Amino acid sequence: MTDIRDYLSRRAALILEDRSLRRENKLLQSLTEKEAAADRIVRYIRAEEAVSVWGVEIPHLFPGMEFLTSKSIIDNTKIFKIISKMPKGALLHIHLEATVDKKYLLKLALREPSLHVRTACVVTPGNLTTVLPEFRPFEEAQSSQCTSVTNAEYPANAWLPLYKARASFALGGPEGFDRWVLRAMSIDPAEVYDTHNNVPKIWQKFKDTFSATAGLFLYRPIFRQYIRRFLLELIEDGISYAEARIDFLPKYMFDVDGNENVPHREWVWDFGQAVNEIRTTLEEQGRGEEFMGAKIIYTTIRILPPEEIEWYLEDCIALKQEFPDLIAGFDIVGDENAGRPLTDYIKPLLAFKRRVEDLGLNLPFILHAGETLSDGGKADNNLYDALLLGTKRIGHGFSIVKHPKLMELCRENEIALEVCPISNEILGLTPSMSMHPLPVVLNQGVPVTLNSDDPSVFGAMGLSYNYFQVLVSSETTGLITLAQMARDSIKFSTLEEAEKRRATSVWEKRWTEFVEELGNGRGLP
Amino acid sequence: MTDIRDYLSRRAALILEDRSLRRENKLLQSLTEKEAAADRIVRYIRAEEAVSVWGVEIPHLFPGMEFLTSKSIIDNTKIFKIISKMPKGALLHIHLEATVDKKYLLKLALREPSLHVRTACVVTPGNLTTVLPEFRPFEEAQSSQCTSVTNAEYPANAWLPLYKARASFALGGPEGFDRWVLRAMSIDPAEVYDTHNNVPKIWQKFKDTFSATAGLFLYRPIFRQYIRRFLLELIEDGISYAEARIDFLPKYMFDVDGNENVPHREWVWDFGQAVNEIRTTLEEQGRGEEFMGAKIIYTTIRILPPEEIEWYLEDCIALKQEFPDLIAGFDIVGDENAGRPLTDYIKPLLAFKRRVEDLGLNLPFILHAGETLSDGGKADNNLYDALLLGTKRIGHGFSIVKHPKLMELCRENEIALEVCPISNEILGLTPSMSMHPLPVVLNQGVPVTLNSDDPSVFGAMGLSYNYFQVLVSSETTGLITLAQMARDSIKFSTLEEAEKRRATSVWEKRWTEFVEELGNGRGLP
């Protein structure tokens, strides 16, 4: 013990043992030379950019810092450019309502003459940042004395044709209208880091972005194009498969004729059509391997009284029976701190499990749980219920680091976490990636997949930004850790075994190419 | 599994198992009725105040929030008043230089006619908050053409008698002078939550408070009174024993004659004298049980080149031989992110261990380690070295949550963490107690003691504020958890076994009284 060489060998052994639960640990012992080189290159560039990019004297500048104020810096790093080219596998935690670039959504909306807009009061310079637009289609244009929401005579909640309201918007004209709408549908840095600086307030702003978007998203002509765009954006970032959560709380969406009468089965049908079309298009381009399809996780919201959830559970089963390849699982979403805990729904959820078993369906729970700072409160305790209910994965699981037994269950029973780093930061669970609990779960050997949650609200399209934040904020984590998470995203998806094998083998091929390009310098930015 | 009663009993069992590593778990099964009642009362009041005190609509208001902006609210809560009366056991992590109320320190200084002050430049309204005062005594008053640091003619670094400089301070007179000095010696909310809002910057401000204080603290007439006051402040807050870290980097302090020639053995002698006097005074007042004494943890700073640390290690051994009851252990302090890692000192530290063993001394390492956000960087890796070097406790260990094997070692080998919640928050490791990793280590069964670190810099005198922040920010943690930490503070001290038994039995007696008063309503505020 007093001999320094002995000390250093004991030290190396202790570090190895401490990290022995990490899932990429076995890989580290059997890396190809090229993988090892790629890992070293990335670590070298990361260390270099920690000084050249992040070591600059601007307040609060460090790798892994607040996403919204560092995005433009991230975009220009070599590490980000490298990560953008990495194959990512599957995206398993994303809310469809918050996926597609908001500018694109607005562009789709402006093409639809039947869309109308209204506000709860006249829009003025003073309330421009707080009054929300609401959208819906009408078969025939609604008439109103007034054509502008900025007109002092505007009657509260009067529907105006969208194109008219935009043209007559007095606060900056059509461009001002667009800025107002886009702002309502996303979160900007000042709102997160200043005015909305605690969890309940940021959640309120977050919900507002969903309300502002809902009327556009749930209009069938837009919905159909939206799904195509969603899939193309994923493929663009190296993601080859997705399980998207869709909020089925509204029982109908608006049809092209302006009537709110499109039932859930038509939503799923449209989703499946879009998947097939994208698949066909890519196959025609010889890019078939880039896309393995997409499924839906049926979700409803934890504001529902327990007796009302039964309708949704039955609805989910019916959709699964009609579209067995498209429905991946069931979840209840929404702010766990404010909403109902899983314990409120135990009875119907247990009944659902029995029904699903009796019917022989492959329809697991894939539950949000522990998206909270609480220790022993209801949102934290949702983790116990998610696991007891047999959840296939855990949505977030942010607070699971407090639970040794639950981490052991996840490790032993291979229940993966759907970790959403940037979402956690923006929703106020951690002020930066340096304080995110992800390293704890990685060292405990809990399976982890990285996810984007609500990329269009955060302006973090694709998965690369989330991969980036994780990579730069830990010296233990390296490219091989990210590769493990990408592999695990396929492994813990609801794909059939044969599909998983195919997806994995395609991923391995793309990974090998990526690693080789990086190693021979061609992949370097 | 599908029966709800069965589900609920499985749920209860899982929660119990998940928390089975917690150190207070055994106690929970054998509480006296009065302890159980006291715990319920505190949980009830905490829940009530979460709404009545913290549920108010002010930005960012929640239990466990930023200490500096919530201190005045905390002071008025019932929970704080209850906690203030609780017996706390031992205080094991505190830097003596940052303990005594700064106003009291300034009062002591103003009584010393030989003290002088200087600044690196003229103090102006523009630089008032950044220019630091430096103090030292001189046997004879230094003459200078100029009597004020605010005078445009003030020659940089000219020593002025303190009382003259104060009387002639042009920016608000003597009161303005006091405000300037007090501000330089402590941290205010704007500095932490705004201008100094990242770890390196807050550390710089933190070091500045030490420089501003050093010239007063290391003047023997002040030093002697300072230690007395330090001990009395602890006793006032229900702390009955302390192990104070003293920075022995300066080899001498200033004597009453203004010469810098008081060696370390005299410092320790003075400390021992103060301890004995306080003990005698309390015994005379029939309060002997309130105070079990105090010891010194010898520290130097991690800026030292490795070859220079040997002098300090030998110095520490010599002091231990002369004052076996006063020297508790050895530590290296300072910002782990900026300073040298323990690996730089392995050779001399191993040699020290051998020497200590050969000499048959009880002189353990009690090392700072893991006071960082890093994952796998040098500051985080200090944890491996602290444990391999056989540290008796770990100073902070903030990042140990990332290390399953190291938490296991602490649990199995009973190595306690010295956790300093408010210090961690103010130094930027966590934005609030809700994000502090303490619940993780508690649920892993790692022994924890709560500590104040630098109470006078933070304005968090005693231990009650730290106890408060821990109690209100977790629903799992209760009064019994705090009691476990208080018991553990004695158990993991360097007291001899017989002293520990006595300290524990006194603590148990005071605890029983506290619990009874709370239960019968007399202890309620």
Descriptive key words:
homodimer, 525 residues, TIM Barrel, 2 domains, four-stranded parallel sheet
Explain this structure.
- Chain A has helices at residues 4-18, 25-28, 33-52, 67-75, 78-85, 102-110, 162-167, 173-185, 189-195, 199-217, 220-236, 264-284, 306-322, 346-359, 378-388, 404-413, 421-426, 438-443, 455-458, 464-472, 479-491, 497-519; strands at 89-95, 115-118, 134-137, 160-161, 239-247, 252-254, 260-263, 294-301, 327-333, 367-369, 393-396, 416-419, 448-450.
- In chain A, the strands form four sheets. Chain A has a four-stranded parallel sheet with strand order 1-5-8-9. A four-stranded parallel sheet of chain A has the order 10-11-12-13.
- The first copy, chain A, contains 22 helices and 13 strands.
- By secondary structure, chain A is of the alpha/beta class.
Percent of residues in helices of chain A comes to 40-55%
Gross morphology of chain A: globular
Our estimate of the beta-strand percent of chain A is 5-15%
Mean pLDDT of chain A: 92
What structural class should be given to the helix and strand makeup of chain A? alpha/beta
How many strands in all of chain A? 13
- The CATH superfamily title of the largest domain in chain A: Metal-dependent hydrolases
- Low-pLDDT stretches of chain A are none
Give the largest chain-chain interface (CB within 8 Å). A-B, 60 and 60 residues
CATH class of the largest domain in chain A: Alpha Beta
Here the CATH topology of the largest domain in chain A equals TIM Barrel
